[in-house]
Amino acid sequence: MADIFPFQAYRYDTKRVRPADVLTQPYDKITPAMQQRYARSSPYNLITVEKGEPRPSDSPSDSVYTRAEQALKQWIAEGILVRDSRPGIYAYSQEYPVPGSSERRTRSGFIALGRVEDYSAGIVFRHEYTLTGPKADRLELLRHTRTHTGQLFMLYTDPRRRVDTLLASAASAVAPVEARDEYDVVHRLWPVFDPAVIDAVRKAMADQKLVIADGHHRYETAVAYRDERRAESPGRDLDAPHEKVMMTFFNTRSEGLLILPTHRVIADVAGFNPQAFREKMAATFDQQAFSFSDKASLAPILEKFRRELASRGSSGPTIGMYTGHSFVLFSLKSTADLAALLPDVPPALRELDVVLLHRLLLDQGLGITPAAVAAGRYLTYERDISVGLAAVDEGRAQACFLLNPIGVETTTEIALSGQVLPQKSTDFFPKLLSGIALYRMD
Prior knowledge:
The chain is an alpha+beta fold. It is built from 15 helices and 21 strands.
């Protein structure tokens, strides 16, 4: 059973600040340039809390974590952050441009509290592995602030769209909170305080299993914090604030869900030779090269290549590669024995492009082992294909491997089966803004 709760969110007073001046992207998507821009936009920008800037003089009594704690207390005291007077859930929509096209879509869901569950309970499921560094940072921040500022992006599946229907009337009114972010995404929020609607939403969600689409590190941080607090207090109070975490829920059967591919860029691989690499992979992959004479002819070749990558990817595992002189499509041979090639990989994962890229092309083909990937060696990740290609053209990388996106249904099926994808296998777009609602455990 998925346990969903209304809560009294802290929200920015829109009479005092403009939401666009104070809200941020998720902490792990904030670059140093974005960090500086956020800090300049308003003294109340959430960046002070979400991802504060270290100082040479930092100490246990004066650090990014203590300054985050002090900022929250000050903003609440000044009335910049105001707590809603009664518990509610919050309808949330994002109207966004589809990258690489002129199309705009709208994705709608809602924000509420969800019970913090161990994965073993079979209620909350992950689909990617996590790293220890980000979790340690988020846990220290949570210890100081006792506040969840970012959203956990959760998926559930309801073909009847019961919650969507319940919240549709609330979201038809003018949104009291609206902000356009730096990616031209318009975020809108509608508080819903009607007890009858909230109760109906809770009942509709009770039989759901939840898949983490984005926010694995933050979810596992919430589990770790819950366990710390449990250890500090005898007995177990399931209604304690640390037993819950703020989540944003989206129905996989609603419109507007979009997953973008995350491409892989390799550098510093000793002895990398594209032709030798292709010959090594010839027994497993059919290959087609798309060559061009000069950079002026790159654009039409790239467009043709991308169409072929998508077309072939719809019928079988297909991966692209760019080395600066040509594009190459690697299509898995129909005769390839994946059970023999990948005996330690579960059958449900063996034909996924991202798994074949990591286990066959990178590991067996180039010697980039899972341990090297986990250590951050040789490999970086790029959503924007042009950035990956530029890294190769400018000599900062040796090759860029290009992927098709994984579908939403495939992602949820894999998660619910108990399997886990390589890190950065999915990129749900757009991201959920931090600070649009805050859950303070006081």
